[in-house]
Amino acid sequence: RQDCEESKGVIMDIFFYAPQGEYGFLSNFYLQPIEVGKRIWKSSEHYFQAMKSEDLADQEYVRSLFRPFDAKMAGKQLRLRKDWEIVKEKYMLEALRAKFLLPRLRIKLLTTAPHILHEDSPSSASGLYWGYVVGKGKDRLGILLMQVREEMK
């Protein structure tokens, strides 16, 4: 579901998931290069998945992949850094901040205010953490996007 009910003065929910459509730019699968750590990443998903490993060769492998989906699949195969559960939101924030430093995307993100952002993820373990699956989940991606939006004001 990808919608936002427009109503003057009313805060609405914006649901996104796929990288297409009006709110597709909010997706980590949106193919937009970002620069983090003096390296160019093809998408925020590439960067996030690569950071699951402390091994530079693993990171470079993920960075070399063409599609964000490929990066996600590769990230599932990496040997996770020991502190991943502690640092994963730090890396997601770094990715989002880099992505929305780009003027065109910053403007688009700012135009979503004051609405509430939700990743309408399909049901999965990661979906319940990062997304909002059928009204359930921690909704962390949406919350972090709103944090970045607030920082960008």
Write the layout of secondary structure elements.
Layout: E1 13-16, E2 34-36, E3 39-41, H1 44-50, H2 56-64, H3 68-77, H4 84-99, H5 103-110, E4 116-119, H6 125-130, H7 140-152
List its traits.
153 residues, mainly alpha, two-stranded antiparallel ribbon, 4 strands, globular
Give an overview in words.
- The protein is mainly α and 153 residues long.
- The protein has helices spanning 44-50, 56-64, 68-77, 84-99, 103-110, 125-130, 140-152; strands at residues 13-16, 34-36, 39-41, 116-119.
- The strands form 2 sheets. Strands 1-4 form a two-stranded parallel sheet.
- A hairpin with a 2-residue loop joins strand 2 (34-36) and strand 3.
- Helix 1 (44-50) runs parallel beside helix 3 (68-77) and helix 4 crosses helix 7 (140-152).
- The longest helix is centred in the middle third of the chain and has 16 residues, at 84-99.
- The chain is globular, with a radius of gyration of 15 Å.
User: How many beta-strand runs?
Assistant: 4
- Which structural class matches the secondary elements? mainly alpha
Low-confidence stretches: 1-7
State the strand order across the main sheet: 1-4
Question: What is the rounded Rg?
Answer: 15 Å
Q: Report, as a whole number of angstroms, the end-to-end distance.
A: 27 Å
The biggest sheet amounts to:
2 strands, parallel
Mean pLDDT rating: 92
The global form is: globular
Number of helices: 7
Order of helices and strands: EEEHHHHHEHH
